[in-house]
Amino acid sequence: MSGTVVLFLVLYYVVVLGIGYWAMRRGGGDDLEGFLLGGRQVGPMATALTLQSTSMSGYMFLGAGGLGYSQGYWAMWFAAGDLGSGVLNLSVLGRRMRKLSQTFGALTSIEYLEKRYPSSAIRLFAGTLTVFLLGFYVLAQMIAGGKGMALVTGLPYPVALAIAVSIILIYTFMGGYLAVAYTDFFQSIIMLVGVLWIAIAVLIELGGLTAANHAIVEIDPTLLSIWGKGLGFEGQWGVALGAVLIFSIGVLGWPHVVTRHMAMSRPATARKAGMWAMAWNLLFVPTPYLVGILAVLILPELSDPEMAIFEVANLLLPAAVTGLVMAAIMAAIMSTADSLLLQTGSIASRDLYERFINPKASERQMVMVSRGLVVAIAMIGYVVALYEPPTVFAIVIFATSVLGSAFLPAYFCAVWWKKANTAGALSSMIVGASVAVGWEVTGVVEATQVAPMTAGVVCSIVTMIVVSLLTQNISPVPHSIIDAMNDAQAVNRIPEALQRASDMSLSPESGAINRRLDNEDQDG
Amino acid sequence: MAERRQVIVIRGTISETDAVCVVASLSGDVGATVEMEMIYPYYRFDANCAVPTMAGCKDLSMFCLVDAVNGLGSTADSFELEKESVTSEQLLGDEVDPDDAAAIAVRTVSHRLGRKLRTIRSFNVEVQPRGLVYKRFWIVKTIDARVMVDSTNGGLHPLTLRAA
Description:
The complex is a heterodimer of chains A (524) and B (164).
Chain A: H1 3-28, H2 32-37, H3 44-55, H4 58-61, H5 63-71, H6 76-83, H7 85-104, H8 109-116, H9 120-153, H10 157-174, H11 177-206, H12 209-219, H13 237-247, H14 255-262, H15 269-284, H16 286-298, H17 308-316, H18 319-357, H19 363-387, H20 392-416, H21 422-441, H22 444-448, H23 452-470, H24 479-490, H25 496-501, H26 507-523
Chain B: E1 4-10, H1 16-27, E2 33-53, E3 56-67, E4 73-76, E5 81-87, H2 98-117, E6 125-141, E7 146-150, E8 156-158
Antiparallel strand pairs in B: 1-5, 2-3, 2-6, 3-4, 6-7, 7-8
């Protein structure tokens, strides 16, 4: 690997760390809300791009490319789901969750669930499950980072992995949501430029898409079908549906992604952010899958399909451009890793340690627990990634399937269904997670041809509806929560100039005054 | 006849007329009027600490207010207080335990200072409880909405439409 490539990589890290430091100094960490949610002052474009880069990154350059390489156009089922994920997420949850989270005074996505479904059991279960699964997800990013670094620098995998993990750790210790959001913003632009550059180079090399497709027919015509290599998934609509669902509605249940709604500068930010997300997705999402598919023609004997995009870039692009692309790939991986580590540390310290183990914890203890957990997760991840690395694709699909199955109905109904109560939410989380894990572990997928995500989401939705309706008398939704939901629902009818001028830091006070005024109105 | 109480209120800089003007100009409703005032409770603390920084130890003192209804803490600039007689209809009751409020104040101050000054190690914060203080919010009603206006800085927030 040339020195130019490494130089670009180093330069890139310096720029990203500089942005992170600038964002920190800008005031993103002045108080707890500033540290965890950037003071709720993130604008539409940054919201859209941090949401997208957090929910994709490492997977898109390794898993997506590998899937396209090994299964052909079948991989586009996943791209189809991803295309509309941002706009769907922001439209369905964005505005209402932004408003509700501030009214509740919630700083993490798990704390938000407990405030909406008042029960310590909700926080205990959701917090534990999230920390466990996000830990897995971080592992995937580490493996991706290690593989990428090994290729870029030519170092042995263990050394490259250690460097990648160290950089992720340092970056995360810089901390603060605002730093993460603005570095994500920058990285997502570089990711887009990088992946489009590779795609254009591949298409030029192969003489265009039509010529490339003709060439694929010569190798294996089934790669062009929607049912995968050798028609291995023929007629399996359940699996195809799961592939679409996992990255479309599944994202609605990912705690580290829905946190982005809570950090928006105002509820109306969601609409503009949705447009930015859609525009970015249209250009970015299908491209890594396509490069993976076409890589079959350029590197037919590739031993590790997940390296398809790296190897193609390395082969086709000049050193300077390769450096830029490699830096983009590495940064994309790490942008997700720092978000995941920040969320894991926040949830573990605030939602588990402070809430259940040591409610009187001092600031020092909170920080120590949070950082200790970040280091522990990174170390465990390093060992697993070193000695028994599963594929990035397998980890991401497993973690996201379980997260989506467990939390999708809880987050959705939190803003849309006033009858969704604590019993319904807790049951749906337990059932959704159990079904998704059970489906995966017991191999029911092959027997039923239904993806774990599909089964998990359907079961958790049904559970939420049935249990909530059956337990309305014994576990009613508190009036204060229904009031807050009405408030969140009605926000659009308030004159726009008033909304723009609103001081959102007064939301907790407004919630309390609302309740008081409503009680007075009801009394007479 | 509503019961009256003597309470300590943070002196406001935004009058009833100012509040109406701000809301009327933003909403376009010249008929906006102040419907009532709400007196909102906060626990007040004086915080003192010696903060270790790269340039040595800094002795700092500041005010901290903890929302006595929702339990959210924030640091505050200095403010003037005055005694006032208010009715029970205007007054919101405190719902947060004073001991819990003190713990929240410690956490709020140490986090804010720790992040702002980039301290090199942890430090102890001592807070002195100074009892409840109240802040006045003007509730302004327009044709479309009900809006609360903070009498200390003019910050405003729409209330629910059901209440409007």
